UniProtKB/TrEMBL annotation, chain A:
Classification via InterPro entries: Bact_Sigma-Reg (IPR052016), PAS (IPR000014), PAS-like_dom_sf (IPR035965), PPM-type-like_dom_sf (IPR036457), PPM-type_phosphatase-like_dom (IPR001932)
Pfam family, one: PAS_9
Origin: domain of life: Bacteria
UniProt-recorded name of the protein: PAS domain-containing protein
Molecular-function annotations in GO: phosphatase activity
Alphabetically ordered keywords of this record: Coiled coil, Hydrolase
Amino acid sequence: MTLDPFEAAYDGAPSGQLTTELDGRIVLANSTLLSWLGRPRDAVVGKLRFADLLSIGGKLYHETHFAPLLQLQGEVSGVALELRRSDGTRMPVLVSSAVQYDDSGVPALIRTTVFDAQLRRAYEEELLRERRAAEAARSRLQAALAVLQQSLLPATLPTVPGIAVAAAYHTASIDDLGGDFYDVFAIDDERWGFFLGDVSGKGPAAAAVTSLARYSLRAAALHDPAAALSTLNALLHERYIDGDPRYCTAVFGTLRPDPATGQVAVRFASGGHPPPLLIRADGSSEFLQSTDGTLIGILPDSQFPLTDVTLTPGDLLLLYTDGLTEARVGGRRELYGPEAVQELAAQYAGLSPAELIRALSEVLTSLGPRPTDDTALLAFGPPGPSGRQRGA
Amino acid sequence: MAPVDILQRNNVVVTGNPDGRTIVLAHGFGCDQNMWRLTVPALVPEHRVVLFDYVGSGRSDLSAFDEARYSSLDGYADDVAEICTALDLTDAVFAGHSVSSMIGVLAAQKAPERISALVMVGPSPRYIDDGDYFGGFSADDIDELLASLEANYLGWSTAMAPVIMGTPDQPELGDELTQSFCATDPAMARVFARTTFLSDSRKDLLTVQVPTLILESAQDVIAPRQVGAYVHAAVAGSTLVTLDATGHCPHLSAPEATNQAITAFLATLS
């Protein structure tokens, strides 16, 4: 038998070729497909439907995805299915089908091309295995990072007599460690220490510096705040002098509540950190930035001048990292900015630190899918006398 | 959730005759509300038609996906009941394709005042054979389906978003609406597949007390004739219509016969 060139091209094509009725009954199949199936022509053509050639899983997939798509849009391409061969083995294929219309535009037949996808499937399975392994590794890493991040922050804030305290930490990415830190702790019977800071960079190296900064500051808390920051400065400078310089910014201070007056004497020093925001009970507010020191860990002999401020009942002092002021507004280039922080915070004059932190946290959440940088927030103040205070 | 959120969550579309009886059309496992494309035109002159996508399918709000909730048909039925409440439906007819037939049974239990008749297209209360019960599949078969979903994991999620040819006579069903149908998130599709094909709703069929139409294809590997007969026997007073159709989607492969059976059933409801 001699085939004409078109028939020969069809029959010997390096892909399986198939023509079916609209209900799937096979009316034409080429030799390539029949040899893949291992079935004689007369056992297939006129006997089986396209779905009969598929594995059971493939059949279900055909019914729930392939056939409806073909009916809805007239063509489907590149769907992975498996042929069931006569010897019981499966052959991975990629299938494309198109509806052929008669002269009046009515669907008449379905033409299907079947590609051998054995090598591609093996490769995809390899990719899939790798992907699953990567997903598993990622979730293990995220769990480890969450534990580690938690270890860099106080589990709970202490109860400080005469002072309400609130804090929050917003993680920018669950795939990385942030370098922000804060703490509040007792120094002696009369004084409490607090600090909040931001280490340069992210990841494990930054976390190591964070850990070092936290424990150094707590250990140095018996000294005055300027001396404590100087200690940390010397430590960071000495340790990271070669190769990979590491520095941080921080505000470190002490609180001395006076039970007689309800006032709190605050003494703090800042090393290159965004200025704390003072919100007075009467609604006035200011950034306390007059005596800002240099970054901590850059120069061997940095000075960190002291600032003193007295909080009266209803006043609040807010410490934050630049993740707050540099949060992107609505994902645009525009930053949230210190003015917006001040404006919002002033509305919380006379209210509790917890309410202020909650409001700022809502802002951070609302500013976009995720802020770009981690953010630590810490606020405290002696509770106000008036009914405006709505609890911690 | 506020009603408006539920309507967004499930991409609810309301069309048709606002004065007519409401019929809710629920898609099955696989694609989305576009599956009802050829049914809607037959219903809109006399009925108010509600279409929606299950969470995880079509243009639903994927952020609302909750694996625990959607790991049982109850979760999907809760969604249906919430949609009915959000639209304040009463005496609606719920038409479900495939697994949605069983979701409709559960939803009618949850909101009996809202759903007063059922249409089941290609229903099966259980896909896996169980003793004397013939579902058409072994547990291994279903594992194989889950594996074939897996095999399309790479291609399906990206390359498979189909570029649809516009339908000249229905321009409203243009590109944007239909581009993503059937291209569900693979992880969510797996949950829906497992929930669908491992479910067993045989006992629930016995609770049905509303007029019920069962439509089956003459040839359907997913819901064979024996299963249609089982559903018909289990649902008291139900009507079984066997359509001269092939495949699991008679509303696509034999739309005229399907529409005729549905409208005839709707006409019998008081």
